[in-house]
Structure formats: C-alpha cells, structure tokens
Amino acid sequence: MATTFEVFAGRQPASYSSLPTKDVEILAGESHCRTCGEVVEPDPDRFEWRHASGQEDHPADPRPKCRYCNNDQGIIHRQGAWHDEWECPRCGGIYGFAIGD
C-alpha cells in the first residue's frame, strides 16, 4: 500500500493547504456515517448518501474525510476570515480553500 510521502512527494499544495507531515499508509476510500459508524455510499438516483447495509432508521451522514490519507476519524474543521480548512491528525495534512468575499 502507498504512503502519503510516496504519493505526495514533490507536489505543490493548493492555496490554504499543506501537504502531510507524517508518513502514513493511505487508507481505503470508504466513508462512514457520523451517527452509527457504518459504511455509507453515494446514491446516484437520489443525489444523497445511503448506508451500504440498507439501514434506514436515520439519514446517512458521511464523516469528513482527509483528502490525503482517507482518514475520517478526528478531522478538525476551522473557519478563518478568508478560508475554511480541514486538518487530519493522522497524517498532518491540511486541506483548505478560499471562501470568497
């Protein structure tokens, strides 16, 4: 399996972002529900998320996921005056983008 340093070596981070600071294995791309922790997937027919197991007792609500290592545990969201950012405690990467005027 590839690691963050292997995949992102030599790349330039986008504005308000920074590349990973820890060399960790990149996880599988599964998304999990904030409410129950089960795997969720996009439902292309309804343009929303659904539980992969078919569970319907609550709406599927995917956790935010790191764009570098695919971690969805403990992602920290911050709002700045000019940008929003998500920081991953697992790899140390920050994904940010400008919010405009």
Low-confidence stretches: none
How many separate structural domains?
A: 2
- Helix/strand structural class: mainly beta
Rounded to the nearest angstrom, the radius of gyration is 15 Å
The biggest sheet amounts to: 3 strands, antiparallel
Work out the helix count: 1
Q: Overall pLDDT, averaged?
A: 94
Spatial order of the strands in the main sheet?
1-2-3
Number of strand segments? 6
Helix content estimate: under 10%
Give the oligomeric state of the chains in this entry, treating copies of one chain as homo and distinct chains as hetero: single chain
Distance between the termini: 41 Å
Order of helices and strands: HEEEEEE
The global form is globular
Beta content comes to 15-25%
Which characteristics define this entry?
101 residues, 5% helix, globular, mainly beta, single chain, 6 strands, 1 helix, 2 domains
Description:
It contains 1 helix and 6 strands. It is globular. It folds into 2 domains: 1-28 and 73-101, no CATH class; 30-64, no CATH class. The protein has a 3-stranded antiparallel sheet, with no helix packed on it. It has a 3-stranded antiparallel sheet with strand order 4-5-6, with no helix packed on it. The protein has one helix at 4-8; strands at residues 31-32, 39-43, 48-51, 76-79, 83-87, 94-98. With 101 residues, the chain is mainly β. The longest helix has 5 residues, at 4-8.
